[in-house]
Amino acid sequence: MFFLIFAVWLILNGKITVEICLFGLAISAAIFYFMCRFMDYNGKKELMLFRLAPFFIKYLWVLVKEIVKANVCVLKLILSPKLQPEPALLYFNTTLRTGLAKMMLANSITLTPGTITISVEGNRFCVHCLDKELADGMEDSVFVELLEEMEAKEARWS
Q1: How far apart are CA 42 and CA 47, in angstroms?
Q2: 8 A C-beta contact, residue 90 and residue 135
Q3: Could you tell me the sign of the dihedral formed by the alpha carbons of 84, 87, 92, 97, in that order?
Q4: What is the mean pLDDT of residues 45-72?
Q5: Which of 96, 114, 95 is nearest to 104 (CA)?
Q6: Closest-CA residue to 109 (of 85, 132, 135)
Q7: What is the pLDDT of residue 158?
Q8: Within a 10 A sphere around the Cβ of 73, how many other Cβ atoms?
Q9: pTM here?
Q10: Which one is predicted more confidently, 133 or 17?
Q11: CB under 8 Å to 3, separation ≥6 — which residues?
């Protein structure tokens, strides 16, 4: 993180001189110290993010695929005069432990067309679906599986 802060300092200055580098090193060190002291930052968390990066990339790929599939489903509902949407409220519990995983699941549901996360209270999610078909298997979705796998890896590395 120190090197990232220093690199941003150099980029924002637009030129490299000895004075700018020395002052940038001092400012970067002060910001890094502040983050470690008052913002509960440490190198272990940063290392964990690098280790989980492949899982985040896989998760992003799955999210894009699910968004495309949901778009097609919603498009069928809109364009077909015979199909009538049957809105539904779905309540389900999840085994996700961390707040980050719950936030990612809630945002992924909301980003997927035809569904929106209404509330998250503890491990209980409330989701509004445009059609019952969109609600099928949500509690055991691929999102939940990937997030549980990420939590398991994080727990093993911690």
Answers
A1: 9
A2: yes
A3: positive
A4: 88
A5: 96
A6: 135
A7: 64
A8: 17
A9: 0.73
A10: 17
A11: none
What residue spans in the chain does CATH classification 3.30.70 cover?
43-157
For 13-35, what is each residue's pLDDT tens digit?
Answer: 988 899 999 999 999 999 988 98
26-35 as b/e: b if 16+ CB within 10 A: eebeebbeee
3-state helix, strand, coil in the chain (%, to 5): 65, 10, 20
Flag whether pLDDT at 128 surpasses 90: yes
Query: Could you give the C-alpha distances from 150 to 61, 93, 124, 156, 157, in angstroms and in order?
Result: 15, 18, 20, 10, 11
> CA-to-CA distance for 123 and 126, rounded, in angstroms?
10
Give ∠ CA 130-135-138 in degrees, rounded to 5.
Answer: 140
* CA neighbor of 126 nearest in space, from 93, 77, 81, 83: 93
Task: Check if the beta carbon of residue 109 is closer than 8 Å to that of residue 127.
Answer: yes
- Residue 90 φ/ψ, nearest 5 degrees: -120, 125
CA 130, CA 109: separation in Å to the nearest integer?
12
Q: Which amino acid is it at 143?
A: F
CATH number, domain 43-157: 3.30.70
